Amino acid sequence: MPGAEPILANYVPVIDHPVVLTGLAAWFVGTGIFFTLALMTPARNCRVSSEVVVALKAAAAGNLIALATFAVAWRTTLAGLPPIGFYELVMWGGGHALQAANVALMLALWLLLLQRWSGHAVVTPIASAGLLAALIMPHGLLPFIAALGTSNGVYVELSTDLMRWTLFPVVLIVLGFCLRHWLLHRRSRTLRGVDGRYRLAGFTGSATLAVLGLILGAMIRGSNTLVPGHYHAAIGAVSLALMTAAYDFCRAVSPRDIAERIVQGARCQLVIFGSGQAVFALGFAIAGLHGLGRKQYGVEQHVRSAGEYLGLGVMGFGGALAVVGGLLFLAAMLRCAAAWRRSPVSLNTNS
Q1: Which of 170, 18, 40 is nearest to 99 (CA)?
Q2: 25 Cα distance to chain centroid
Q3: Per-residue pLDDT, 252
Q4: Which residues are CB-contacts of 197 (< 8 A; sequence separation ≥ 6)?
């Protein structure tokens, strides 16, 4: 379409055209309704344990904070700015709140997977509430800061500082609880079952990618490919937790024969995707440590040293591996969807 300019803004890249922007606004409204209903759902109506419900509601609250920040920033960002500057400021604060919401969701899934793996809760509901409140509540400042104007330096700095100082402590504390839980229950009989293996593989892969993302993030000193290396590891951690939870969902609602066949290949698929994502992020990191700049394309990109070539080669191999893992996951989900069309879907609460 004429005038449809791609804007590579951080967090929410857009195409600057009314069709895309209308679709994005509709999507935001729909997700806002969903997360509001999630917060209003009584805990007694949920089919997961209380500490997981608390973490899931924290993730919903984080998403609502992000949506509020986007809306306020849209109103307070100066209209005369170039498109890249305008959308960068609009998406900056809400994008950081989305990070916290995704981390909360990932932690909720860690607690869920390990609870189903061992049959015991990882933390108490009170501990879960305290940790997730420490993660999400500080981001509640962002809509109010955005209301003062996104050109205000506090808006950019506070968003960055919240990312830098609120995410990693909660992730590491919850991870510590999870590792303690694994040590206490590693000889459990559930380890012998297929379900236990894929849940443990999903948690382990997600936790490894999360730690890798934190390490790479701490190494960032400039605008190079260490930045995408960091966030592809972090995003991969969230994706892997969601993939593992998707197998749980499919096992609960699919015909038993289909569910058993799909779950048998789940561990292999999760390992392939997680390994590929880790190698992909490490390739970015190697190239970045040798000075390769980010967001440079075509003639703008200058690959000079052997280290940069090595990093790009590792990145390409890891990316291909992650794509294979992603396609295997897609095939498994499509197989479940086809099975649902042939037979009524009924929730197996014992799964």
Answers
A1: 170
A2: 21
A3: 83
A4: 191, 267
Q: How far apart are CA 156 and CA 144, in angstroms?
A: 13
Question: Are 51 and 120 in contact, with CB atoms under 8 Å apart?
Answer: no
Dist CA 194 CA 318 (whole Å) = 27
CA 9 vs CA 16, 58, 70: distances in Å:
11, 26, 13
For 292-318, the pLDDT digits (tens) are: 777 665 555 566 778 788 888 999 999
b/e 138-173 (16+ beta carbons within 10 angstroms → b):
bbebbbebbbeebeeeebbebbeebbeebbbebbeb
pLDDT tens digits, one per residue of 258-291? 888 888 899 999 999 999 999 999 999 998 888 7
Model confidence pTM above 0.85: yes
Q: Are 56 and 105 in contact (CB under 8 A)?
A: yes
Residue with the larger pLDDT of the pair 187 and 202: 202
Packing angle between helix 226-253 and helix 306-342, nearest 10 degrees?
Answer: 20
